Amino acid sequence: MTCGANSTRAHSAYLESAAKRALDLAVSIALLPLAATLMLAVGSAVLIFDGRPVLLMQSRAGRGGRIFRMPKFRTLRKNGPGSDPEPTRLGRFLRRHRLDELPQIFSVLSGAMSLVGPRPELPEVVAAHPEKHSARLSVKPGATGLWQIRGDRRKMIHQEVGYDLLYLKNACLSLDLRLLFLTGLFMARPGAFRR
User: CB count, 10 Å around CB of 89?
Assistant: First the structure.
């Protein structure tokens, strides 16, 4: 992983290049028919088994700390105030295979996110740990990334910021393609990547 390793910048110049945006658009548009079919199936399953709402629009900190709304399929039970929501049975399956994040393809198409990049974090987490997130907020957040593939998913992402920082310094087209390929394998066989 040495694509941008010689850069003196805080992050690889590739992250702000036309090539990265072209990759986002090309892959998202190519995957859109399959993604739309899967989203229809997942949305119907959530509606039938777990009821409304099917989609949630979560506030996340994007590039420059700007707040944007990120769509996800609902995976948690609708518990009362003050209770810790638990994933539904369907929700656990969707999370394990990352199918709950399929609607993020629209955030990529709109330009709010990239396919690969630092994971978008909750605004309150960024506010509580500003020093850990300053570099991550210098570029668009990603729908997938190095942490999602290699990190310990039992930990919160702000506890493993090093994966995002490593990606920022070494980002390049070939690394993005590799991470997208590994994400596809992860969605098909998530157990293969568990620690």
Answer: 10
**pLDDT-based confidence at 3, cuts 50/70/90?**
confident
Burial 111-139 (b: 16+ CB within 10 A, else e): ebbbbbbbbbbebeebeeeeebbebbbbb
Give the mean model confidence (pLDDT) for residues 116-137. Answer: 87
The predicted pLDDT at position 85 comes to: 79
* Eight-class DSSP state of 13: G
Nearest CA among 113, 154, 116, 162 for reference residue 135: 162
Provide the 3-class DSSP secondary structure of residue 178: helix
The answer to whether residue 149 scores a pLDDT higher than 90 is no
Helix 173-188 and helix 18-50: axis angle, to 10°? 20
Q: How far apart are CA 54 and CA 134, in angstroms?
A: 33
In b/e form, how buried is each residue of 156-191, taking b as 16+ CB within 10 angstroms? ebbebbebbbbbbbbbbeebbeebbebbeebbeeee
DSSP, res 5: T
Average pLDDT estimate for 176-185: 94
